[in-house]
Amino acid sequence: MATFSKTGFKTINYNSFRPRYPPSFYEILSNYSGNKIGNSLDIGCGTGIATYDLLNISDNVEGVDLSPSMIKTCNDLIKERCESLGISDFKRISFNVGDLDNLDTLTEGKYDLIVGAQCLHWSKNFDQLFKKIYKLLKPNGVFAYWYYVDPIVTNASGKNDLQTLEKAKQIYFKYMYDDENLVGPHWEQPGRSIIKNYYKEIDDKIPSMFKDVKINNYEVDLKNFKKPTEGEDLVLVKENINIDQLFNYVSTYSGLHNYLEANPESKVIEDYANELKSETGWTEDTSIDLVWNTGYTLVRK
Length: 301
Ligand SMILES: C[S@@+](CC[C@H](N)C(=O)[O-])C[C@H]1O[C@@H](n2cnc3c(N)ncnc32)[C@H](O)[C@@H]1O
Known about the structure:
alpha/beta, Rossmann fold, eight-stranded mixed beta sheet, binds S-adenosylmethionine, Trans-aconitate 3-methyltransferase
């Protein structure tokens, strides 16, 4: 996907404002894997959000991404991120520019775990990708891919008045998808449609040579709200955050980046923030809970 490779794309903002995957999710990976994880590979690693955390469950991790600026940010963060994880042997992690649709330079049969976080929808050939991943894995090795879709406000300053929450959701959808003059037409396709369809198009392509297929989706239902379950779902939740964090997160969207390139004068995030505040009565002091729609798939060689 080209947007993240553009020189104007702010990878540091991306790293700061995108959600982290929680320890409970790495536990799901580790439990499913069962065996000791020696070598892991993170394809489409971005700024290394998952790559670094994989060091908690894997001896060595390699990250690959198409975008040289993403890989530069990964490398710039090695010291800081490794130290925060209490890791002094920086050689346990490495990053390289590479295309997930052309992984030919990697060693076949090397990996216990291959992951694709929020990136598989950019592959141009899922059949070929699954075949290649199969070859790269050791026997019984695991391929795990996951994604998050849209953040939904489920609570605002301790109130969860359904009508207001539905209104907030509707305004978000208007700005990000539904209004033809806003961000909607600027998403790269088919990637965004695949992700909005909960990766069904990808899961349908899992070849029968993989076993133990486990597919999980979590979707916010505002009427009968139930939080995602730790140990079962990919839980992406930010509670009691300032409303500005929602706008910061949205500002990392590739679709928004493309829209702003085409409309440099636009103040779309400000317009979104103003409309949201005026329609809901929320202010900069309102604290909100954000819950993402998410999903993951685990398969074994
Ligand atoms: C939304 S980001 C996800 C990054 C990271 N995995 C995470 O969980 O935050 C998608 C990443 O996929 C990368 N990407 C897109 N197409 C790719 C390709 N064909 N090969 C490798 N990386 C790709 C982009 O450069 C970007 O860093």
